[in-house]
Structure formats: structure tokens, C-alpha cells
Amino acid sequence: MAEFLAGRVVSGLGEGQRFLSLHEYRHEVREKLGFFPFPGTLNLEVDVGKMKEFLKESEPIELEGFERSGSRFNPLTAYRVWIASFDSAIVVPEKNRHPENVVEVISEKNLREKLALENGDVVRMQRLG
Fold first, then answer.
1. Any idea what the CATH number is for the domain that residue 16 is in?
2. Is the dihedral of CA 44, 95, 69, 89 positive or negative?
3. 61 - beta bridge partners?
């Protein structure tokens, strides 16, 4: 049983800030995960096999998509994790532009700043659900 998953910090696509700034996503994250997300994601390169095992043993939390001004914002699945002392979640969008080996992590805090992370640093996540 995989209680932990390690990942190497990598640069993202810059889209997390835009999506996590949207009222609908922010409030659903607060309702279902218990925190308002920092508007951005921490992107981690992981071993795909270990990630699948880790997520298979985790409880998925579904966040619904929504429509706004004729645009469709897709659902995503979240998996609660603990990074250092921060309640966080791996989020898997229904439509994902990242390679399979890159996961996006949300948290109430800017994890990159709070943990003084740079590209290449290794982060260890503990499964919560």
C-alpha cells in the first residue's frame, strides 16, 4: 500500500492561476476540500506506475464543471494529500494538457514559496483519503 508519493518540481503551463481564480472552482474546493486554493498549482513529475497505485488507494473527490458566459469549465477529480504541514490535493482535470507523468497540486498556500522549492527539488506527498 503506497502511503507516500514523491515528485520532482517542474514548471507548469501557467493555466492554474486562471482556473483557480474562478469563483466557482474556489468555492467548490472550499466546500469539498476545506480550503480556498492559492491561485496556482505546484507541478510535480512523478513515476506513472507509483502515481497510479497511490491514486488507486486514495478516495476521489469530484469537483463539478460549470458554464460561464458560454464557456464550459470541465470537472476535475481531487485526491487529498499532505505536503510538509500543508493540507493539499492532487487535481486531475477531465481535460489535461500535461504529460501523464506530471501532476498538479493545489493548496491554500503557495507551496513553492512556503517550502522554498525550485525546479528539480523533490517533494513527498502523504495520502490522506
1. 2.40.30.30
2. negative
3. 78
Is the separation of the CB atoms in 6 and 117 below 8 Å?
Answer: no
Is residue 8 packed enough to be buried (19+ CB in 10 Å), middle (13-18) or exposed (0-12)?
Answer: middle
Helices of type H across the chain: 16-20, 23-33, 48-56, 111-114
pLDDT in tens, 26-84: 888 899 999 999 998 999 999 999 999 999 989 999 998 778 888 787 888 999 999 99
C-alpha cell at 70: 458560454
Cβ(77)–Cβ(59) below 8 Å:
no
Q: Tell me the residue range of the domain where 98 lies.
A: 4-127
DSSP 75: -
What's the total number of domains in the chain?
1
* Residue found by looking up cell 503506497 in the block: 2
